[in-house]
Each structure stands twice: as C-alpha cells, then as structure tokens.
C-alpha cells in the first residue's frame, strides 16, 4: 500500500546573520534530514521539545516555508517541484490547523464568511451550494445554524478551534496537518476537540500529521509516533510500542517525565543535563550526545544511522546498531 505522504531526507535551513555587524552568516538547521511516511487514514505524530523542527517540518510540507532539499511525495506524486500555481490547487487536499485560533480567524468576518472564503478562493462551487456546504460542515464540528452568523470573538477558545477545523475541512482535504491544535485549550476542552478530530477523521477518511509537544495527547490520538531532536528523527514506532518499549535514550527521558497512570508502576525520572544545543551549531556525531546519559566515545565521532531495528521500529542510536548488537550487553538498554 502506497503512503499518503512520504517525506524523504527533508531539510530546511534558515540563513541567519549574526555578529555585531550582522556579517557572519550562520545556518540554522531547523530540519536536518528527516524521513517518514504516513499511510491513508493514519495519524502520525511528531513530538519533541520546542525548537526541534516539528512545526517547520509541517510548514515545509505545505510550502509555507520553501524546503531546502529533500523529497515529498503526496499520494505517489512528487510535489517538491510543483510551481506556486500547481501548489495552490493542491492546497485543497492539504490543509493545516494551527494552535492559536485567535490569530488565524479574521475578527471582522462572520463564521459564514470565514467558511465561505476558502470555497471562493478555490472557486469550488456556486453560492447556493456553498451555503449548504457551510451548514453541513458547521454541523459536523458542532456549531449551530444560528452560530454561523456570529463573529469569532463571540466564541470560547474551544469553539473557535471548531471554527478553524470547519474552515480547514470545508475543502474536503485528504491530509490535515495539526500543529499544536489543542495546546492552547483547557484540558477538558482538549479532550472534546481531540474526540471531535478522531470522529471527523473516521467519517471523512482523513490522514493526520499531528504535531505536539504533549506526550499524553499524542498517545491518545496517534497510530504511530516520531520523536524529533535538533531537526532529526531519533525514533519512530507504533504508539503502544513507543510508550511501552522506547529504545532511544532521548525518548526514554521524555517518557520518564510524564506522570504514570498506574501508581504501582515504578518510573524513574531521567533528568537531562544541559539545554538543547543551538541548531546553527549542532554537535559532531550524534545530535543528542551532549545530554545523553549513555553517550560513549563513538557518539562524538560517528553519526548514528537511522535504521529499522524491529519491525516498524526505527531508531538512530549506536546502542542499537545492528552490527553492534551481538556484542552489546542487553542490560545496557535498561537505564
Ligand atoms: Fe546516546 Fe550515543 Fe545513542 Fe546518541 S548514539 S543517543 S549519544 S548512546
Ligand atoms: Mg512549534
């Protein structure tokens, strides 16, 4: 089965001037060679600390940033070299929902006009058909006919996010990129919106790229999860496997920080030393080595290969290097 979205070795480097005279040119390696696939109707999540490049990845796929290099296949078609115009048409199929519905909704427009706008932009249907589509999508996201005459400020944060969801879905997209889509909401509202997103995915057969720093939220919605650090993919696995049997030391430390649901389950918090390095000056070898409790000599010299170490379980760490496995002590993995 062909992937709905296939990203290979994607890079997004931002030039940055620095120094007193702004003459030194640095390159910020926001996304530095990541690869992943998302199957049809699947939810794939990107997690990692802020600044790890997950949002830049989403934005690069939608060409809100021009990618530096790599390959992006949508439904088997290479969209990396699409012209602006070709891409504009494609945007019907690929939509994005952002964290902050306050800033993405024009306060002067009614909900009706906010929903009408994408239909007009893409010249999709007659005014009469548009009205029916607006009512249908509003109903799907839980907004009443009467509410579509109101303005965004008359709604709560959760309802505003319903409006953004409706606005993204009115074009019948295939893929939706959700960037911290529930992060600004109260926990109880988060659950409502997440459940709505899951329902809509099933009903409308959507494929989700779900970007979030919140590991509890990600666990709830994802089929598979990719863990990013310093613009690179550290580990990818099915959700259950990633949470029950994480391999990469970075994933282990992230998971050790979330409270356990079972008080009997003893979990030792792994506190990382230091900060995330500057992405314009990443360390040699393994990007995680300056903070890794398992770092060893090889980690400074050689960058670990991102490889499949179990079925559908990928990791970039020398501890799991296939050529190494027979000589490494099993107990080394459990820290
Ligand atoms: Fe740690 Fe080395 Fe593995 Fe990197 S390659 S995560 S530094 S053990
Ligand atoms: Mg972000």
Automatic annotation (TrEMBL):
The keyword ATP-binding applies. One of its GO terms (molecular function) is ATP binding. Residues 5-255 form the ABC transporter domain. Coiled coil: none annotated. It holds the Pfam family ABC_tran. Gene3D superfamilies: P-loop containing nucleotide triphosphate hydrolases. CDD domains: ABC_NikE_OppD_transporters. This is Oligopeptide/dipeptide ABC transporter ATP-binding protein. The lineage of its organism: Bacteria, Bacillati, Bacillota, Bacilli, Bacillales.
